[in-house]
Amino acid sequence: MRRNLHPTEGARFLFERTADEGPRARYRAQIYTPTELFEAAAILGEDGSVELPPTGASAELDERLATMARLIARDAAKRRADGLGAWPERVLRWRK
After folding, report:
1. Is 49 exposed, middle or buried (0-12, 13-18, 19+ CB in 10 A)?
2. What is the spatial distance between Cα 53 and Cα 42, in angstroms, rounded to a whole number?
3. pLDDT given for residue 96 in this prediction
4. CA–CA distance, 62 with 83 (Å, rounded to integer)
5. Is the pTM of this model over 0.90?
């Protein structure tokens, strides 16, 4: 059973990996606000590249989601070098 991720204030940003393709990964990217859910499919590359279409949320929320996606992508090569899985299965962040 999935828990309610809608915050009482601010927004939650969730990335759930759907495919690990080595130097790239596919994620379901979601933004939870107190009343709405916005989704998009994201493709992240170890080189820091991000393909992320607009979710339908405000430009500010979409930009925060894109920033988080870039951070995940840029960290992948270091995670691999440290002997960890390059692509985390799930990343959840909250911002006010």
Report:
1. middle
2. 7
3. 86
4. 31
5. yes
